[in-house]
Every structure is written in structure tokens, then in C-alpha cells.
Amino acid sequence: LLVFHHCAAVGHASPRTLWRLSSEGASMQRGVVASPAIINVHGDGFTMERSISAEEVRYYALYWDKIVIPGSNLVYVAIPEEDVLVETGVIDRPRVGVSGRWGGADIGHSFAFAQSVVAKKLIEEDKSTDWVVHQMGRELSLPSEFIEKRNTLRLELINLLPVPSADVAIADVLEFKQRRADELDNLHSTIESAYLEALKSPDPDLATKLAVRELDDAIHNLQTVASERWRRTSKFDFSLELNLDGSRLSQGVAAGAAFDFFTNGFGIPIGPIVGGIASILKLKASHSSAFIPAGKQEKLAYLSHAQTERLL
After folding, report:
1. Which SS3 state, helix, strand or coil, does residue 97 take?
2. How far is residue 225's CA from residue 160's CA, in Å, rounded to a whole number?
């Protein structure tokens, strides 16, 4: 068993009560099964680029209702402030038992294996939550037995999500999440409206559509309230893999036309320009790998990447 610990300061206040308040009351909660580290498998070995950062932990705490970060009995990577986060119920850190001979590259693959096993179980058994897999980085990496080729539409929001810096206490993040639930819910709903609008009417005039204008407003509102609360925030890119096969997205919309139109990619600037850099909405269709247990869901997987050089 390999164990990696991350030394970090514990938050200033216990967020248990805030977490309960922020996670109750919604008919369908948003759940994420994330990886604790960025792993690069190469040849017969692997390297751990790094564990997820304190800032990335705050991203998950702010934008998701339930956060599960699996480990395994082979290798366990601790995350910043893990003890208090687990104790107060902000995150769950289950360990997946694996057997047999594992070595070299196989140990590197065990991270994605544990993530896939836990995500499959939650998707199949917890119908009260909209569960998705999520990794930090540019491309999703999952074991071959958990993926299949599907027609997908990747929605990318570049330079979009404000996330407080690592020195902000988790309790403060959750209190903001509770008070600003309307702005956060509106952002999620306008993202969904934007991609549904794109599917219904794939054309170069997408920037003029009401759904995109509403997303523009949602971004502006969220950035405004975040900058009022926190002096420093990083901007996170946000990618969503959408299912064009076998989900309700393909029912009553021109999914085939959308796939053809967006195969070459399409992007438009949206949102306020901050420091001369605008938020950008990109859509690109492809025949790509998708998480099999999510085959009947609209949302197949998420990726995020912190634009740490861009600070509000």
C-alpha cells in the first residue's frame, strides 16, 4: 500500500452545518466522482504529476453538492485538508479493494479504475443524484473496460468559473455557496439551456440566441458576487462531454445535424472581458470515448483546468 500525504492548513471553522444547509432542498443534486491526483502512465510505469490542489478542492466544494474522491488498497493519495473535509461530510473518500498482481503502469491505472468502479455503483444505485466522473486536466483517462465509442458533443467554457484562492477557509466557501445558491443554480441551468439550444438549432447565429445571452448574464453575475467576496480568485476552464447517443438529448432535437455542424468546432466569446480576456463558449462534436455506465445520461464526464495566471 502506497500512501501519499498532502500537508495543508485546516480551515478556520467547522463547515458541517453549512454543508447540510447547502446540500438539502434540491430535487436532484449534482454529484461528482473525482480523482485525487493527475496521473501520467507511460510505458511500464507511471508518474504522479501532483495531487489536486487546495484551490481545486474549493472548486469542487463550491460547484458540486456531493463530492466523492476514491482511493484503493494499492495506492492512496491524500488531498489538502482531508481530515476536516471527511469529518464534516464535505467529501467522501472510499477505498476500492483490488486483488491480483499490480505493478508499474498498472498501479498508475488503479486511480482511474477506483474512480470508475465507484462512479458506476453511484450512477446505478443513487438515482436522487446526477452523478458524473470528473478529472483535472485536458483529456479524460479511464480504463478500457469502462469506455466505449459514442457520438459526443464537448461543451467548453474557457476562462469562466471563479474559484477562491487556497487561503480561503472551506467554511467560508460553503457559506458563500449557501447564500449565493440562486446565482450558482442559474449558472448550471443556463449552461444546460445553451447546449440544448445549440442542439435544437445548430447555426452560426448561436451567439444571438436567448440561452447564450442568459449564460452571458449568469457569468457576469457570478463573477461580480465572487469578486465582492474574495479579493483573489482564479478562473477555471470547464469542459462537459455530452451524450448524443441514447439519451433524451437526441429526442426531439436535430442531434445528427448538430454532430455534423460542430464536428469542425465552433466558438464564440461570451461573458465580460476581465483583464482583456473574454470567456469563450466552444462546442465540438466527435466520435470519442465515453463512460459506459453513463450511457443513458445526458452528461458523460467533466474536465476542469485552472487558469492560475488569470486572477480577478
Report:
1. coil
2. 14
